[in-house]
Amino acid sequence: MEVDGNSQSHIVSGDRRPDALGYFNVLSDEIVCSILNLLSPRDVARLACASSVMYILCNEEPLWMNLCLNKENRELEYKGSWKRTTLHGLQVLNKCDDPCKKPLQFDGFNSLFLYKRFYRCYTRLDGFAFDQGNVERKTDLSLEEFLQQYDAQKPVLVSGLADTWLAKKTWTPEQLLIKYEDTSFRISQRSANKVAMKLKDYVSYIQEQHDEDPLYIFDDKFGEVAPDLLKDYSVPHLFPDDYFDVLDSDQRPPFRWLIIGPERSGASWHVDPALTSAWNTLLCGRKRWALYPPGRVPLGVTVHVNDEDGDVDIETPSSLQWWLDFYPLLADEDKPIECTQLPGETIYVPTGWWHCVLNLETTIAVTQNYVNSKNFEFVCLDMAPGYKHKGVCRAGLLALEEQGKLDVEDNLSTMELARKQKKIKIDEHMNDSNCEIAKNGSDLEFSYDIDFLKMFLDKNRDHYNSLWSTSNCIGQRELRDWLWKLWIGKPGLRDLIWKGACIALNTSKWSKCMEELCSFHNISMPADEEKFPVGTGSNPVYLVGDNVVKIFVEDGLQTSIHALGTELEFYSIMQSTIDDNIQDTEYPFGIWSKKLFEYKKAGMSLEELVRSGGHANIWPYIITKRCKGKIFAELRDVLSGEEVSNLASFLGKQLHDLHVLPVTTLDDLSYLHMEKKLEMGHEAHEKCTMDNIIKDINLPAASKVFFTILNQKKKDVSCRLTKWGYPIPSTLIEKVNEYLPNDFVELQSLFKNENGKLEVHNCCSWVHTDIMDDNIHLEQMKESGNGREISWRPSYIYDFSNMSVGDPLLDLIPIHLDIFRGDVQLLKKLLESYKLPFGKRSSSDNGCKVRHISYLTMCYCIIHEENILGAIFGMSKELRTANSWEEVEETVWGYLNEYFSF
């Protein structure tokens, strides 16, 4: 029922909830509000008309705040209320905004949940009495004293570190507005979408808002949008090392943030990413900090660790809600370590420590996370595959089942930990160099010691065969690249780097395997700089003297055998094209055996794929001659435009030679046990009648396997993209099944044979599938005449373990996105030397819509098992606001439609 303002006086006072909510009355207000958060703004507006209580619930500002922030990534402009801001974003504000209409009021309805939320929205913190706390305060702290007493041990609050900073005088809201009023900064909030606001709009927001968990600027890219801000401060002398600095700026994980927040805003309970340590310097306002030692989960916080990939999710109340609702419940001995941070003070947060921050007034701060010798092994541990160790690092022994605790108890007696010196103890007043950790209801002592925590690594998982946690701060390729650069660039730290790499990469296991191979083949043992696997690929590769030793381990033993067999078959075919006297050799684990194995895997669930990885002590391997020179990944930043253009032409010629190689035909599909033919869906795109035509198509066996694998990958694409999430726009994920074809056969070149039946050209050829910056080799030429001492020319493409049989377009995807980084001119240069046709897709003769080459390429990107879309939307911020897949397709791959082969 809809109730207007004049009718309320005729309503008898009483509990109107049962009649107003009907069957929803059995649900608490909190649950009803949670359900409303799942609806669209338009549906919430309609539901507000259903009854008086629904009107109240559907007009709550926190609800409209969530509805607004859950929209697409965009620049936000606050309009005085979140409902008005949402309607303005939907461009319907003028249609429904009536400034003369009075808000409706009803009696007979009370809600403690809404009252508490209302109180949090309007509470003021200037009257709260916060003492100085029990975190140690230091002035003129020396580096030696910091390293001995605090580094990776306990928090400390240091004054004087920012005395010489320009930021200490200029970082106020008023002064920052003068220079940066139109600069957009990233906003932190609990939505997966990324929101930005111009500084002038944000300052206006913090003056108007009454949110229980206000938005605050938490921008890790502030140095890019406002580079002058980086000149206003410097890293304090207490934190000289950051091992992530060996990575290029576009490779390293986020590490520094500008933080601006109003009263009541703050960071809820968390442990910093990758178990890094952090320093935070306050320039304006006051912050209240609460901290717990590692493994001590705060009251009201729940830690979830996915047992498939180790992804960590933390459920926690907002910072303000925790201080108001949970802090008063704590006994004195259970209260956190706390302090009030004042302008000019720097707080140090050690690795693994839980912390929560509440802004007592408008604050401005800068913070950085870093990796040094004290926390390096912890960072490697956090990125290692598996899940149990991640739970223990954050939740202590609470993360273990009872049986697991008993196993720990049995192991503790035999561990050589020097526990009296290494274990962390609790001291209520933090007077000594160690700190107290509660036992969390267990009789066991929890030790935040790397040797202790390594006990919980899953010995049956290794780095190369396990799912990678999406919560890791860097990807698998980036981790390998980081550790390799540390190994080469910091030789004095190799003992430490080796320990960390053994945790994250199982380096000791593969090094031992490699040494056995060298001994068996009478190859010289590796020198110190050769002990570490090179490159960023998914298989351990070692450079030993003039040899390359590659151990096939990716995705388990079965896949590795097929990878080796395919690579050997490919080498054989290349050699046979050169020497006619070479006899064909059968490879039982060659390319078609690999494709049939991929067909089986394409139909497996995620759990089955994890189990199929297996665990073995024997792995296939190959030893080849080492090429002199460097990979493109090492030379990208030093090559001239001409050299990169020459590389593009070289790649086109290489792809031409690759794609014209003969492929052994596949005739026998008997053991595939395919129970039903390829069929189109019930609804065809644009009234296409392919479902009637498909029965008459003569599909080659090879094409049948290829199309079946594509269609299998298409089935769960929406779930896969949703799991990957940002930066893939959620609105496009919702439209993905509508964009993709019913069946990939639709997109191939169909023609009528002499009998009048439709056939499909066999689109399958050899494809590399993985031509990226670490698989292209360049060699040094003589001195060039342009003033540079050396110049480089491309010489080889290598790493053929991922060879496949499929559409040649598949090779353009990694080249264009990884090598060319979307540069259309380089793609054009490649195609000029490629000179092969891609074929026409879906001619209008079969009654189906004509599809461009760009469409098929975009479809391959979408269904790819790797997060290709993450690379596309990460490379182009503009595409994140695209309204359709067609818009993305045209931007990234549109040039392919202009390509005509010579």
Describe what you observe in this structure:
With 902 residues, the protein is an alpha+beta fold. It has 5 domains: 8-122, no CATH class; 137-373, Jelly Rolls, CATH 2.60.120; 552-625, no CATH class; 633-662 and 769-834; 693-763 and 842-898, no CATH class. The termini are far apart. Residues 1-12, 414-443, 670-694 and 841-848 have low confidence and may be disordered.
Helical fraction: 25-40%
Roughly what is the average pLDDT, rounded to an integer? 82
- What is the CATH C level class of the largest domain, in words? Mainly Beta
CATH superfamily descriptor of the largest domain: Cupin
Lateral strand order in the biggest sheet: 1-5-4-6-7-16-9-14-3-2
Total individual domains = 5
